[in-house]
């Protein structure tokens, strides 16, 4: 069931909310490794290359839709914190329509252009047919993937992070079973892996809907909750689209770095890939803390508990900075050793590059921690402007850094683009949080509003909430 995050110790609430998501992310990583193993062992290296070659474009298109669902859930969390069940269900109705429409548009556009996309990406001729067979199935099932993510985000919006974990475990196990069934039992080749993913996501979506209908009364949308109020749709898209845009920005940046690494050679690609796997595993707690902060801030903003927002952000920043500093030290001294688990034969050149990767990035993981915590916190307030600005600056810094610095410093230059991007994103986020908290605490000056970077709407909403709290 849901958890009210407007009462109780902020840090304890945030950490307890994060733990199931962290477990789910770890489980998903191991599942991803198992999925890769199944394809490689049953179909061979060409099939594995075909599936792996479409990862960035899948992330780009699916990330847009999945990010949108996370943004839509922010409004749900705000209305849950406000204890306004009618408005909450109305938000669900509006969000469901947006999710369905976006899914249909993306499905049609992506499936009709799958071949063109693969050719544009210069997919090698020997794997392009397999890549197409896999990708077109994934694109055809966009609706199932997006719906599962939306329903999971809605449950998290009301403070329930455990139920999405259970459904994630179910869909992951089912996916592995279906992989073997379709690939070996029905001889469906790589398309079978695509069908396994889509069907498992569809079943998980159905289970989520059944659970919500049976167990979560507050999320049952009634006929009267469907609305034609275009202001509602505009407000939801104002929050949701920038979320999706940020996911796309990350994907574009990844593509830029991948292009740079490809030009540097196979050793650079192998070293970066191995190092990134270690980094992603150790930075998972930072990501889950960010999701928890978004829900915490949104609920407390809806409830008008502005002092708790400040307290929660301070606690979240403190704990993530300590953790980021710790993993920075660990990776600085043991990064090469950890990368060895992913480097076949212990290639000395690859491990040397991995060591350089961690030497460059380790001192800057605290910047990454700030990005992970502050951006979702600002989004939880309903401010979509600053995260968009931060995302654009992050993209520009990463692409410019990857393309320019690699010309002068090779592999080191490509790695430098990451801390550069984190710094570029952190600056507007810190400024916005500082001045936004001042706005929530007192009547702001014109200078405060100007420097708050897009928080004027937050101030107007906070004034409305203060009046409602006073009246009640």
TrEMBL record:
Residues forming coiled coils: none
Residues annotated as transmembrane: 47-75, 87-112, 132-152, 164-186, 192-212, 317-337, 357-374, 386-408, 420-437
Domain of life, source organism: Bacteria
Keyword Transferase: no
Keywords: Antiport, Cell membrane, Ion transport, Membrane, Transmembrane, Transmembrane helix, Transport
Keyword field contains Membrane: yes
Topology in membrane: Multi-pass membrane protein
Record's GO cellular component terms: plasma membrane
GO MF: antiporter activity; xenobiotic transmembrane transporter activity
InterPro entries the record matches: MATE_fam, MATE_MdtK, MdtK-like
Chain's role: Multidrug efflux pump.
Name the UniProt record assigns to this protein: Probable multidrug resistance protein NorM
Organism listed in the record: Halolactibacillus halophilus
